[in-house]
Amino acid sequence: MKSFLGLLFISLFVSCSLSDDAGPTQPTETEAEAFARNQEEIAAYLEANDLTAQTTSSGLHYIITEEGTGESPTATSTVRVNYKGYFLNNSVFDQTTTTPAEFNLSNVITGFSEGIRLMKTGGKATLFLPAKLAYGAFGNARIPSNTALIFDVELIEIVE
């Protein structure tokens, strides 16, 4: 009986010391590699859907679908928008429903802010963000790391 309990104790001790957690994981690709991959994925999406987009120097791709007639916001403007965010497989991860969202452009992801500043009040656009302009290597609970995103945005008004 003593040998059985001793063996059981040793087995439990060894199994408890074995861990699936090997500590922090290293990114599988650099930011530059992820950016290049995202640009290829976005280009393939645009081609597959017969879309032509403009591209900024930061790598944001955008299509102004309705021009709008009002002013363009600045980097510190508070805006009211309707939007739908989705992945390149068209799976929606977030969207406004009955009430527009209101936020300051200095408090949102870089690509979203940059894209909205290209719009005029009353305008609509589709924004294609490489991960470095979105959530990067970190991702969040709904968005995997190094994932390109698409946003359909309507700029309803500049609040201030």
Q: What's the topology here?
A:
Layout: H1 2-17, H2 31-48, E1 54-55, E2 61-66, E3 78-87, E4 92-95, E5 101-104, H3 110-117, E6 124-129, E7 149-158
Antiparallel strand pairs: 1-2, 2-6, 3-4, 3-5, 3-7, 6-7
Overview of this protein structure:
This is Peptidyl-prolyl cis-trans isomerase. Belongs to the FKBP-type PPIase family. Its EC number is 5.2.1.8. Residues 1-22 form the signal peptide. β3 (78-87) and β4 (92-95) form a beta hairpin. By secondary structure, this protein is of the alpha+beta class. Strands 1, 2, 3, 4, 5, 6 and 7 form a seven-stranded antiparallel β-sheet that branches. The protein has three helices and seven strands; from the N terminus they run ααβββββαββ. It has a single domain, classed as Chitinase A, domain 3, CATH 3.10.50.40.
| The top level CATH class name | Alpha Beta
Query: Architecture in CATH?
Result: Roll
Strand content: 25-35%
What is the first-to-last residue Cα distance?
78 Å
InterPro entries: PPIase_dom_sf (IPR046357), PPIase_FKBP_dom (IPR001179)
Organism: Leeuwenhoekiella nanhaiensis
Signal peptide: 1-22
Domain PPIase FKBP-type: 76-159
